Amino acid sequence: MNKLCSLTLATALLCAACYSSEKTSTGIGTRVDSVLALMTLDEKIGQLTLFTSDIDVTGPTMRENYKEDIKAGRVGAIFNAYGAAYTRKLQEIAVKETRLHIPLLFGYDVVHGHRTIFPMPLGEAASWDLAAVEKSARVAADEASAEGLHWTFAPMCDIARDPRWGRITEGAGEDVYLGSKIAAARVKGIQGDGVGSLNSVMACVKHFAAYGAAQAGRDYHTTDMSDRVLRETYLPPYKAALDAGAATVMTSFNEIDGVPATGNKYLMTDILRKEWNFTGFVVTDYTSIMEMIPHGIAEDTASAAALALEAGVDMDMQAGFYNDALAALVKAGKLKEGLIDEAVRRILRKKFELGLFDDPYRYSSEQREKETLMSAANLEAARDVARKAIVLLKNDKQLLPLEKDVKKLAVIGPLADARREMIGSWSAAGDWHKASTLLEGVKQAVSAGTQVLYAKGCAIDNDSTQAIAQAVRTAQQADVVILAVGEGAWMTGEAASRASLNIPGVQQRLIEAIYKTGKPVVAVLLNGRPLTIPWLDANIPAIVEAWLPGTMAGQAIADVLFGDYNPSGRLPVTFPRSVGQIPLYYSMKNTGRPMDPNNKYTSKYLDERNDPLYPFGYGLSYTTFSYGPVQVDKQEMTQQDELIVTCTVTNTGARAGKETVQLYLHDVTGSVTRPVRELKGFKQIELAPGASQNVTFKLTAHDLSFYRRDMSFGTEPGKFDVYIGPNARDTQGTAFALR
Ligand code: NOJ
């Protein structure tokens, strides 16, 4: 059926026979046009408008009367509303009380879990386990869709190389290759069997583009970079997410090359739609059309709205500027209505694909809520991902894993029993009351005869040292101390930049006081970003990076501390020694004067080393692995060849363990300079004690390609070094050439 049936127009919009019989894209296209033909200009603009409901608002609420807006057809989508009953109630307003009965779209920031909270995304990326990452997104989408949501504002695909930026916690870290793989895995998990399948939601790739490159790590700040860096480093993860089928894109707050992303036609039209053939819709970030006025590119509501629409932005989140300005611009002949029609088409198409015209309430299911939300299986998945995310940074004399049967164990520190902090920022509808703490996890894990002592020691970020003495007394009574330090959930996420990356408050004083007791100390870091911890590394024998692990924090950390899980996480981001080194990332350029400690006039600092505290890809295990020589199957490859690179990895320790074998490439010379190394592949292998495995990678011309001098993407003949190892630093290599 290609056109509306003969029922009254209003009924026809919801007529299953009209909308469900043809699911092909042409079928949907016809239906979209048939709806568009019924719409007034104001109704069209309403479809381009997204307003917040009243839960969990993260910016100015522009519209107190958003329910009136729904009724009047001034809004096509709502965010920050969830729950089967609540979304149904709001949907009823749209479906029953508006002239055309067009259903609403419900969006929400389901970033690392919906009710069951998984580790914050940077931590999750530390698993380097794409199946685990996909699973976490799948569980989140399953729970979110049961609560009536159709759309999540995730994944965040912003490459971030500055840990001062609090939002580094929301992405996959510094690397193009790992970031792209994780972005794609997240989209697959979020969209499951595709837009329209009942337990999936639409993904929204954000923040387009280069939001992670905010100058000085200060949120919302300017980004500026060459087109080469933009395309080579920042764009690939967004592209990978779109190639995985992501339905929508969100603009970023920052300007880039002098033009705010929300008014940036080069990004939204030239790259996104023309080069990448993106057919979904683009939404702004929160009030970012309005923010083009203080940016200094639009002088009033009308010019900001026109700039955004003409740049290719379909939906206005929360500014209300499209509502306020577009109709008058069209009527005055200053804006083509066709542009509005195009944007409406893209949004209606998604509503059709979601099946909302068949059944506007299909996702609001009390039954599914009961079965799905925080189910035992979902909690188990969260525990599994959280322990896979944990990175063992140091383990002198095999202090870890701890015995479950010791006389007295002290758990000390402001993060030891900090329930709220465990689920991190952007924890959506997660209920922190249901999260477990490290103290609880330890108590559950140890034997009945083990006494667990506890002292908080100090607060996360105030300067009172009063409770430190009590913590020292507690430590003195124990055989071993677990010291939980780090950051509060509020210290990462949006608007949470820090100029210092020390462990905040007086926690360092607490750490040093506990260290002086001479007791064996295991430091557990609970934090959302890399911290500068050279003192800890120099003095504390065992250090565990647990991130902010989510609902199952306590159990997951205990699994690692007591050896029920052998740690396998690897850093997705470099840990600097000091803030002055930032930006510090492994895929740097060599410079013409690479660092030479014996030559003053080389690229280095007077007061700091060049190398990081812990390199990208780094993480220890309770076992050890050795790497054999790296071999290539040919010394020279052609454009058509596949180069096989192999290396034998052996478990040389006494426990079974998982190793993440990483392959890095270095293009020795090019028409433009190339990074000293770039990750081009990784494999996770499980090895029994004493076992070896031959790990094989295939490289093709595509892996050797880059943006050449003329900005064409391809290879250049020449020499390459290829390295394999457990992180970006400790590698072995060999060479080959491309003919
Ligand atoms: C602002 C944030 O930058 C963005 O990531 C988020 O999705 C929106 N607010 C909606 O909450």
UniProtKB/TrEMBL annotation:
* Gene (name only): bglX
Q: Which residues form a coiled coil?
A: none
Protein name per its UniProtKB record: Periplasmic beta-glucosidase
Q: Does the keyword Signal apply?
A: yes
Q: Where in the cell is it found?
A: Periplasm
Q: Which InterPro entries match?
A: Cellulose_Degrad_GH3 (IPR051915), Fn3-like (IPR026891), GH (IPR017853), Glyco_hydro_3_AS (IPR019800), Glyco_hydro_3_C (IPR002772), Glyco_hydro_3_C_sf (IPR036881), Glyco_hydro_3_N (IPR001764), Glyco_hydro_3_N_sf (IPR036962)
Q: What GO cellular component is one of the record's annotations?
A: periplasmic space
Q: Which intervals hold domain Fibronectin type III-like?
A: 659-728
Q: Which organism is it from?
A: Dawidia cretensis
What top-tier enzyme class does this entry carry?
hydrolase
